[in-house]
Amino acid sequence: MNASPVDAAAQAVVSHMPDTLARLADYLTYPAISCQTEHHADVRRLAERIRDDLEALGLDRARVLDVTPADGGVAMPTVAAEWLRAGPDKPVVLIYGHLDLQPVGEPEWRTSPHEATTVGDRLFARGAADDMGGWLSHLAALKAWLDTSGTLPCNLKLVIEGEEEIGSPYLQQFMDEHPDAFDADVMVLTDCENPSTDVPGLTVSLRGLLEVELTCEVAEADGHSGLWGNMVPDPAIALIKLIDRLTDDDGRLAIGRVDVDAARQASARQVPLSEATIREGAHLLDGVDPLPLRGRTAAEWLWWQPAVTVVATTLPTRAQKKNAIRRSAAATLSVRLAPGQTSAGMFALLKAELERDPPGGVKVSVTTDEGWGGAWLYTPKGPAFAAADRAYVAGWGRPLVQVGIGGSIPFVSMFGERFSDLPLILNGVLDPLSTAHGPNESLHLGVFEKMLVTNVHLYAELGALAPASLKSA
Ligand SMILES: [Zn+2]
Description:
Blueprint: H1 5-15, H2 17-27, H3 40-57, E1 60-65, E2 78-83, E3 92-98, E4 117-119, E5 122-124, H4 128-149, E6 155-161, H5 171-177, H6 179-182, E7 186-190, E8 201-206, E9 208-217, E10 223-224, H7 225-228, H8 235-245, H9 262-269, H10 275-281, H11 298-304, E11 307-313, E12 324-325, E13 328-337, H12 343-355, E14 363-368, E15 376-377, H13 383-396, E16 401-405, H14 410-418, E17 424-427, E18 442-444, H15 445-463
Parallel strand pairs: 3-6, 3-7, 7-17, 8-16
Antiparallel strand pairs: 1-2, 2-6, 4-5, 5-18, 8-15, 9-13, 9-14, 10-12, 11-13
Helix pairs in contact: 1-4, 1-15, 2-4, 4-15, 13-15
This protein binds zinc ion.
């Protein structure tokens, strides 16, 4: 008996996995690091290479898109291609990924960062999971369909961005100037994380980001600490007391906590975020434990509550040591906003708390710049998500679990705002041990294989839906 078309494609994508990994290894040799101008030529070389490969795969209109920024900046290229031969009664599925990489500067790499190296069940290289493995899992799946059936069960568009790792500065302009490249009925944005190698994640929230500058001023000049100690306030101590005021006894931000509804609490409890995973993922020292949960889940603390980190200070360094009370002290506080929280609202709360009752009567100022990353909260609904769950059951043996991301990803907010009426499926090949952006980035090969099979099914499941049924009212 002949296998059904979807099963034939699923078998092909698995049996061709060695070729897919060879192609991945080849792409990973390109040091396409978008934040380093000396590598901008590599970003373009890789973009052109991918365009040629997409054409060879049988996609139509494979092209490298460019824009000319009005601000005099340099925009990295975006690769686009499409296959729209399934006809107008089938939905257009847009696949998004990015080809650019984070830098590899850290000395802790155990393997060569631009040479794919398999150790155990993981493939190590910069970009292996973030995000080459992500979009390549789609190329392999559509190739399997074309090889086995000569057709795809839905219409497809691919957009592979060249500047995600620098915050997608010109993605809006690409969307404005090349709208047909983005026009679709459902979007699969493959650059996110799974909560474990056995549990697939659907990302539905991001925290926002607000940077606050806190300054304590005391005098016009530094003063002798022996002559004036006990009579003149030390701005360094005042600064530390003010930061302490924002936090609870564990050191977590205590200002601006939000209520998390029962549905999100329930989904958080499905997420296997163990102490061991946190310990390993965050590289904690022996003897240092993750902060206590205090009756909440790790998922809630990581994704759905605001957090503060001191990211810079002007406190005296060892090299500047002298017996003086300094004239001033300042700190930059990086504040992660809960999904749904506005930067203006959080800034007002922090400012009020920091400016009341200054410790030692120091002069306190609290400022921020506009335009930090917005938080994002999404409610997946409609048939596309049920279709995605069926594809994940076929590929992973279980449906998607809703997860958040503690960080802020500009491209997600941009897609979220611009295409808010479309189903946005945020998935990916990352897992908690992938260490994207850090040394020894890796792709779990079991996750990759499951995503290959899932994508094969995802096209069939989405292709079975009427385009008009996908847009939400
Ligand atoms: Zn990424």
